Automatic annotation (TrEMBL):
It is an enzyme of class 5 (isomerase). It comes from Muricoccus roseus. GO terms for biological process: chorismate metabolic process. InterPro entries: Chorismate_II_sf, CM_dom_sf, CM_II_prokaryot. The lineage of its organism: Bacteria, Pseudomonadati, Pseudomonadota, Alphaproteobacteria, Acetobacterales. SMART domains: CM_2 (SM00830). It holds the Pfam family CM_2. This is chorismate mutase. Its EC number is 5.4.99.5. Residues 11-101 form the Chorismate mutase domain. GO terms for molecular function: chorismate mutase activity.
Amino acid sequence: MSDPALTDPSVVQPLALASARAEFDAIDDAVHDLLMRRSALSAQLSAQGMKAGGASFRPGREAMILRRLLARHGGPMPRATVVRLWREVISSSLRLQSAFSVATTAGCEPLARGHFGLDTPLRTHATPSRVLAALSAGEASVAILPSPADGEPPEAAWWISLDAPRLQVVAALPFLMQPGQLLPSAMVVAAFAADATPRDRGLLRLERAPNTSRDALVGALTAAGLSPLRLILSADGLRALAEVEGLIAPEDPRLAGLAALRPWPVGGYAEPEPDTPAAQAEPA
């Protein structure tokens, strides 16, 4: 049986439908014009060498773009759709400005594609150490690795041997958290430091004596003015990774109070955005 919405003139209203389609076409043309204008500006920056001597990938700047757009967003289009659209737009500009590529593990490939776009060259490696080796050798612009976790096996705990400050964490994925997600799924590592935003997390690697309790580490960090938001312990119990508020520079004076733990900043990232706007979030 035919759908009356498609055959009954009183339902379809052909003139109204034609008018709506014409408006859709006009909007599509306007959006396309702006995208071409944006791409031309990116190509112009590259041609003029305006980013010479600096990284084209600026994760802090990208985070602030997305935060601004999410803050002004309204209507029925999901926030996740906005982020996906702009991640492709931003990644396209990045590829115009530099020969950008990604190294990652198989498990992180969907996150890498979602953040850096479907057309960005990407190569997967069997282990985190191989991913970091590709980055160190200049075979990739960034490395994407699983987020650190408590007690993970040595071969997975890539942060223990991260050659900071030469290599540092600069971003966390996904930028827009999934419903119910509290922690990032992956970290982005690059051969430059993260650029600061108004809301960042810093990562600090610590060495501890055997049998030092988690509470003792938390106490030492708190006393130094670096209260940990999260504390990850290595499987051998000899190292810890503290996540604190704000990026931590190697010359930060607060590190002096942690000298016994041999603190070493290993980068940081712009805080990801929740899947629900703050104004609509359910009360705690």
